[in-house]
Amino acid sequence: MAVSHYESVKRVAILGVTGSIGRQALDVVGANQELELVAAQSGSTPIDGLAPLTQVGGDPVELLERADADVVLNAVVGFAGIRATMWALEHGVTLALANKESLVAGGELAVAAWRRGGGLLLPVDSEHSAAFQCLEGRSAESIAGLVLTASGGPFRGRTRTELEDVTPEDALAHPTWNMGPKITIDSATLGNKGLELLEAHFLFDLPYDRIELVVHPTSIVHALVRFRDGASLAHLGYPDMRVPISFALTYPNRAATAITQLDLASGLTLEFHAPDFETFPLPALAREAGERGGTFPCAFNAANEVAVQAFLDGRIAFLDIAAAVEDVLARVDGAPARDLDELVEADRRARELVPVA
Ligand SMILES: NC(=O)c1ccc[n+]([C@@H]2O[C@H](COP(=O)([O-])OP(=O)(O)OC[C@H]3O[C@@H](n4cnc5c(N)ncnc54)[C@H](OP(=O)(O)O)[C@@H]3O)[C@@H](O)[C@H]2O)c1
Known about the structure:
The protein has 14 helices and 10 strands. By secondary structure, the chain is of the alpha/beta class. The strands form 2 sheets. A 6-stranded parallel sheet has the order 3-2-1-4-5-6, with helices on both faces. It has a 4-stranded mixed sheet with strand order 8-7-9-10, covered by helices on one side.
């Protein structure tokens, strides 16, 4: 019989509880006696009675201070999640992070807060959860590189001309994952892989030239780590976000879930292709923003958020999203932020520069 590492019940706070990740996290908590929901926040949807402490919108800091949670799941979408991420990192409270935008934008400031706080930062993004598991316990010198997989989204294989007139409805039809609208568009532009490249750099302290992106249409292999001896370790499973959510919330116990095991005998094949960075320029722009450092990743994220919303509202075309990000990155100074106020200011300035009506 398995012996639990965690003797008492774990107190969980979920921010972004009404979203795709938030709702799946509620399923995970509901199915696990080791976990107890103590606080929840949404952006605007009423959530009275969902948890002992609830809040709709606003600054989450007071809620988090009162909640006394063992683990904070940040499943807010976009830069709006920055205060919760910074608070948990600074206070050394275990952070289960789905809200990649906050780590990308927070960048070096977030990493410094994480070092000071000394807590656990457990990625919920499926690729990063997979990478974390492949990397855990390995020495930095033994690692040759990390490979993040991308499904390629609904427009894989299309040319730029074929993408000129695609609509939000076309872009929202993702082949393998069922997610909130912003990340679904990010998957269609490959902007999501750009964000994930930056996220991996900050999470695992890997230089950008050691992080590869590869297209893998069925999303079975979530990440692969290459070692200096020529061996590679990969993480496989059907695409289901409850696996990385459960991994992060029950870490290090890896609690049981009801998710189906891989059926290898059914003829599972694993296909990989090089991404088309000319048709989908956002990963290359993210890499460049990361290499420039400072608040360039923050500007990448801010411009992308505004442009994705403009596309969803029908104000700009699909190809304009990457063009807008490129334009903003050429115009910001990217000066490092010394504190959260300066970061919020860098985010605001980048948003203002996005050329949308
Ligand atoms: N969905 C996935 O499978 C997936 C996979 C990997 C990573 N992620 C990441 O997880 C995060 C959440 O994605 P999602 O797909 O779950 O998004 P989603 O379905 O759009 O849900 C977003 C959640 O954030 C809340 N929210 C929005 N603005 C807020 C604010 N200002 N303050 C507090 N809460 C706010 C929303 O509340 P309301 O309902 O009240 O608007 C909702 O609960 C994103 O960073 C995404 O990149 C998602």
